[in-house]
Amino acid sequence: MEGRTLITYYSWTGNTESVAKEIQALTGYDSIAIVEKKERKKNNMPLSALTALLGLRSGLKPMDFKLEGYDRIILGGQVWAWHTTPAINAFISRANFKGKKVFLFITKADDKVPQKVIDSISTKIRSKGGEVADSLSITTTMEKVIEANEFREELSSWLKNNGLI
């Protein structure tokens, strides 16, 4: 029997948060947002994309990076300019994934699976003792926050296939 599962995610425009909230609604797992110390301006995607391209890390508000008491982590983030966000970079660099099974969900604005981002995150998590079991990418837009009915079937299937519900 698996131990406890935590949903943790970074969401700038609300799409990743929408998916995380639906995961929580379907599973009842604990959930915590990864929040940057300095609020990112919503109208400045070019600068945000540049910070992702450069592989920068954000300052984060305090949270438990030890992830104690959890055996499985469902980690959500988005793709900016085909890279991970500074908040996810910072979280992964500080989190203790030793012995943890990690499931990734990625929101992105195009139809392609962001394999480069998934591989990059997976490598970083493995280097910190974790195992990435599977990933899911969900296409969204920047114009509006995705609604659960737009991805619920795909998400439910992914969760079931991974024994998360």
Characteristic terms for this protein:
Flavodoxin/NO_synth, single chain, Flavodoxin, 5 helices, Flavoprotein-like_sf, about 160 residues
Q: Your description of this structure?
A:
It is a single chain. The protein is of the alpha/beta class. It has one domain: 3-Layer(aba) Sandwich (Rossmann fold), CATH 3.40.50. Helices cover 33% and strands 24% of the residues. Strands 1, 2, 3, 4, 5 and 6 form a 6-stranded mixed beta sheet that branches. The mean pLDDT is 94. This is Flavodoxin. It comes from Youngiibacter multivorans.
**First and last CA, distance:** 13 Å
Oligomer type: single chain
Number of strands: 6
Work out the strand percent.
15-25%
CATH architecture: 3-Layer(aba) Sandwich
Q: CATH fold name, please?
A: Rossmann fold
User: In CATH, what is the homologous superfamily?
Assistant: Flavodoxin domain
Number of helices: 5
Largest sheet: 6 strands, mixed
Shape: globular
User: Structural class, please?
Assistant: alpha/beta
The SSE string, one letter per element, is: EHEHEEHEHEH
Low-confidence stretches: none
Just give the CATH class: Alpha Beta
Instruction: Report the helical percentage.
Output: 25-40%
Mean pLDDT: 94
Number of domains: 1
What Rg is obtained from the alpha carbons, in whole angstroms? 15 Å
What's a concise summary of this model?
This protein has 165 residues and is α/β, with parallel strands linked by helices. It has one domain (4-160): Rossmann fold, CATH 3.40.50.360.
